[in-house]
Each structure stands twice: as structure tokens, then as C-alpha cells.
Fold this protein.
Amino acid sequence: MRIAFLFFVLAASVYYTYVAFADLSFLTRTGRLGPGFFPRLVGGSMVAFTIWALADALRERREPENDAGTWGDVLALMALGLGYTVLLRLIGGFPATVIYLGLSLLIINPGRHLQNAILTVAIPTVIFLLFDRLLNASMPPALLNLPF
Amino acid sequence: MDIFSDLMMGLSIAITPVNMLYLLAGAMVGMVVGVIPGFGPSAGLAILLPITFGMDPVPAIMMLAAIYYGAMYGGTITSILLNTPGESATVASTFDGFPLAKNGRAGPALVMQAVASFVGGTVGVVLITILAPMFAQVSRSFGPPEYFLLAIMGLLTLIVMIGEHWKLGLISALIGLALGTVGVDLETGQGRYTFGSAELIGGIYFIPIAIGLFGVGELFYAFYQSMHKTGTGGIVNYDKEERFWPTRLDFISTRMTMVRHSILGFVVGVIPGAGATIASLMAYSTERSLSKNKENFGKGEMAGLVAPETANNAASSGAMIPLLTLGIPGSASTAVLLAAFLMWGLRPGPLFMEQNPELAWGLIASMYLGNVMLLAINIFAIPLFVQLIKVPYRILGPTIVVICTLGTFSVNASFIETYIMFGAGIIGFFMRLYGFSPAALVLALVLGPLAEEALRQTMTISRGSFIIFVERPASLWIIGVTILLLAILPLMNHFGKRASEAEKSGT
């Protein structure tokens, strides 16, 4: 997985450097350093060091990776989080938060139905009183018209 | 005399009821952030930064600073009662803090850590009061070459402190520098990496990245480590002990410990990249070397708790010096604080204290008051924080995701920024998992545009010659200090790690 992540960083670095060389000029018309100077420096270094780190990682590949974490819950939390950001756009802040919390607690706090139900309503209420009423912060509006 | 009158002016600003209320709120929130394992001041500051947008700059900065140094106080409660540091700067406090609690001295340990934190924090603020104007005076002669070198120094020292994974730290910093180049080039007006998106013209906003990396990313990592499955069953019951308050001997035996580690912590804190974690580990190691009771260290020695606690609080004060006088943050937390300053159109640097005396001295004065508040909160509100420790991570986790998401949205009412925040959270998790440094990324994201601007100005001044960096005395000094730090910091790092390893192996 570490090697895959390094390949991802390398691909992003190569693309960043390509754009720096292809689209951004090194000097301005007046002969000063242009918008491409710094990105070329950063991109070139990023590619070089990522290749170095990747070579190290490939050399150490034979050693067993210490990968004993809880992937299931992390992936579930990531998926729920991404779903939450989409729901926010569609149905607005409060309903999306209630749905997100309800589902999250159902998965990572199973079996405690009453506690989960209370928290699912109480936490969004407190957060919205804090953000919307007390701090007057802008809350996500709904794209779809809901009856509530 | 000038300093005294400036400080009095700052006190008159800080002591208004509204500002005191915000200061108290900041201190409490800082304690809460410190108490939650896996969340440090960087995460707390990043998550709560959007909340301060509707406020005036003075109370907002005072509150954010209180969150920053308040987290140092809070992190130790879990170190003592649960043997789990609230954040990395309180790791050394577990070495003797938890054994003290197991020996039936949790109450005295909690009070002594509060007193040590107060002494470290207050000595740190006294030193800021004296030294910050001097630093500002010296840095007035700095021009673009010096600012470029300072930005590079800040990044290099942080990378050196990463240790064996320095290559990954450097890549993290380069990613931060790359993200900092997104947006319109201010000199030529040419778009860079905007891909035609209007949302990216102004660049990648710092706050979603910081909230994603430190808030959501750290949360994913905590879940990966199964922190949501471990309960708080091991928490020590301090309220059943015979004696809550420390003895006179506790105070007498540790008074010199507090003095020496306040100064050590402050000096380490001023060095960019070193920070409170290294300060606390160094303090523990030094105290053990100097102590007549070496054999008691690790078994519940009060000086072993007081030393790191004093040092980490003094270091958090010390880190404010380069931020206020040079505008160069030395850590991820102070980078978030710098972002807060910039958000209000304030540019910390040599002229900051002269041009914004109310804000600068109001902030410094508030740190005196904040430390007094934190001392009181730390001692009298312990039951409250113990209750907070008992809230399971599986409930805290989704709540934190909600606060991070809504906090990010509330900044610019932008859905794109919530997606960027989540993307940063996922990348932050993998960075944390595979040894990269989210702190280096965030620091580089803040310092990158400053460094680029300074470098391009320098090259314009010198007509493209790099010789300018060795022609100016101030630049030469900075190069000299950087080389010295690059030589010394790995030794400091090694010293701190050795203390930590020795403690773990029980030798």
C-alpha cells in the first residue's frame, strides 16, 4: 500500500512538473523570473525525491509491512464522510447531519439503539444552535426542496 | 519602561469583560482539544478557526492563542490518569505521571502539572514580553533575501526533526509548496494550475487543507489504530484518594526544576521546527541526568512530571516569538495561527508590534491572564475533563467529522472546499500511515507563497545572481544559524528519542 501511495505521489509530481514546463514560462517578457520558475524547482525536486523514496520502499518490500490496523471502520468512515458532503449539497445541513450521524453510529456504535437515537437528534440540534443561531455562520442550504 | 507601559496598555485591552469571556472560552476549548487523544492544538485551531470569522480580530486572536497554549495543559490529564498522552508534547508526562497516579498520588500529580504548566507558560510570556520587541528591532533590517532564507530555515529544521523519514518529510513539504503555487501569479496575472476553475483563481485555501489533514486525517488514523474500540476502563480514580493537594516537599523539591526547564523549553520553542515535543523529552532527560533520585524516574518521581510539563508550556510561548516578530511560523500550530492573522489582514513581522500595538500587546497581556485562568481551570475543573475522557471515541469521531465539515463550509459557503477538506483528510490519513509529515505540508503551504515572492524579489534586486545571499551580513547570519541548527537539531532529536526509548525499556 505504501508503494502504491508513493506511485500516486510520483504520478501527481510528474504531472505538476509537466505543467510547469509546458504551460508556465520561466522568465517574464521583461527578463524577470516568471510564474514557471518556482513550480519547476518544486516539481523537479518532488519527482527526484519521490523516485528516491520509491526506490527505498521497493528495496524494503521484502520486509513484512506492519499493517495491522482496522481498515474496515476507516473505510466505512471515509465512505460515510464522502456521502455526507454529497447529502449536504442535496438536502441541506440539518437533515444531512441527522442521516450521517444515524448511519455512522449504527455502524461504529452498534447495539446501543436508544443512545444512538438520542445522539442522532441531540448533536445536530446543539451544533446548529451554535453555528446558525449563536455564531451566525452560513449553513449549507438544500438543493432539493424538502417538506421540512 | 516602554515595555511596561505597552504591557499595561495590552492589559487594559485584554481585561474587558467580552475579551475575558473569549479568553476563557479559548482556554476551555484548548483544554478539551488537549484532552482528546490524537488531537493536538493544530487540529483544534484549524477546526475552530472558522468559528472566529464573525468576531473582532483582538478577541479572536486572543481566543485562538488560548486554544493553542491551553491544549498543552489539557493533554497531560490523560497522560496522568489514563497513561495515554492527549498529544505528542505530553508523551514525556506519562513516564512519571501515570506511575504517580498508580501509586495513589493522582491528585498531587494533577495539581503539580497545572502549577508546572503555569510556571512554564508564565515564564515564557515574560520572556516574550522582554525579547519580542528586541527581535522585532533586529529583524527590521531584513529584506527579501533574509525572508526567503528564514522560510527555508523553518522548513529545513522541521524536516531535520522528522529524523529517519526525512525524505518523506521533504516530499510532504514539496507537496505543500506545490499546492501554494496554485492560483493567479500576482506578478504576471497568469493562472497556474487553475484548470479553468474560478474557485481556484485565488489559490487553494489554507483552512480546508489544515482541517482535512489535522482534523479528519487524524480522526481516520485514530480509527485505524482502533482507538474507538478501546474503552477508558484503565482510568485512575483520583477522587478516592486520601490527599488531593501536593505536599510542601513536592513544591520545594521541584522549584529549581521549574526554573531551569522554563528557560530550556522557551529556547527550544523559539527554534523553528523543534517545538514542545522535543522540549518536553529533552527536559525529562536532562532532569533525570541532574537528579539525585535517578532510580525513581519512571516509578513516580514528581520532578519527572514537572520537568516536561514546564518545558512544553514554555516552548509553546517561545514559538510565538518568530511568529510575531518575523512572521515565520515554526510549527503547524503557529502556521494555523499565522493563517488566522492573515485572514484578518494582519501581517506579523518586524513592524507588526509597532503598527498593531493594541493587538500585539493585547495578545501578550492575554497570555498572562490565560495562564492564570488555565491554572484555575486545570485544578478545579478536573472532574469535568475526566467526564469528557469517558466519552467514547466512537461517539466523538462522527461528531468531529460534522464540526469539521460544517466549519469548513461556514468559511466561504463553498461546497468545493468541503470536498477539498475531505480529500485532504483522506490524503492526510495515508500520509500519517506511511510516515509522511502533514505538519511539513501545512507549514510549506503557508510559507511557500512567502518564499516564492521573496525569492523572485531577491532575484530582481540582484539581477539574477545568488551571490546576494552571501553579500548581506543579515543573510550570512541566517545561513550560519541554519547550518548550526541543522547540526544541532538531529542531536537534540536523538537526545529526546533516547530518553523516550530508555523509559520504554525501563533502564
Notes: Residues 91-139 of chain B form the longest helix (49 residues). The mean pLDDT of chain B is 86. The two ends of chain B are 50 Å apart (CA to CA). The beta strands of chain B are 183-184, 191-192.
